[in-house]
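Amino acid chain
________________
===
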Amino acid sequence: MDLGNFSVSLSVKDINASKAFYENLGFTVFGGDITQNWLIMQNGNCTIGLFQGMFEKNILTFNPGWDAKANTLESYSDVRVLQKTLKEKGIEFKKEADENTKGPDSFIIEDPDGNPILVDQHV
């Protein structure tokens, strides 16, 4: 099962302080908008998202259809196909993708310890 590009979405208290901290670790801004309190940062193949005031917990994030530089892949598993496969395995969903649509959508599941996992398709 190919879930797509992986990143960690961090719920931060002060986006400017977090940005400076991760820059000291070698991360550079790849996307986002600091005036809207969110940034995507990369260091090599490592991607993190900084999100201030948008959610309570850190989130493991997968993006079907994207490579590590947010380029659209020619071939990928659609979020709805992934959702169907996980449902067949008995996984419970916190939020489901609309199976009657195509294109961008997402679903959220949690691991046994309550860690949220977002599968977020942008294409």
Observations:
- The first helix runs from residue 15 to 24.
